[in-house]
Amino acid sequence: xxxxxxxxxxxxxxLVERLKLERTADSIGDSEPLFGPDGxxxxxxxxxxxxxxxxxxxxxxxxxxxxxxxxxxxxxQLARFxxxxxxxxxxx
Length: 92
Description:
By secondary structure, this protein is mainly α. The chain has a single domain (about 5-90), classed as ACP-like (Non-ribosomal Peptide Synthetase Peptidyl Carrier Protein, Chain A, Orthogonal Bundle). About 60% of the residues lie in helices and about 0% in strands. The protein is globular, with a radius of gyration of 12 Å. The model has no long low-confidence stretch (mean pLDDT about 90).
């Protein structure tokens, strides 16, 4: 299993648990939009909570809105962002 494939279920679990979604992590598609009517329908408050969860769980920072908007487009995008940040960060 690749690092991306390992990250996706963890990210989905954070999404469901932190935002108290009324759906299971397994029901969230990797490429399903996190925002808007065609996706999960998260709002800006949800985005903040998700960012906090990701930062706490993985020790990566989502620095600005532009990066965050792209990274939070879907679970797939978020997994890529986290994997990239982890790969470029020195070990603690």
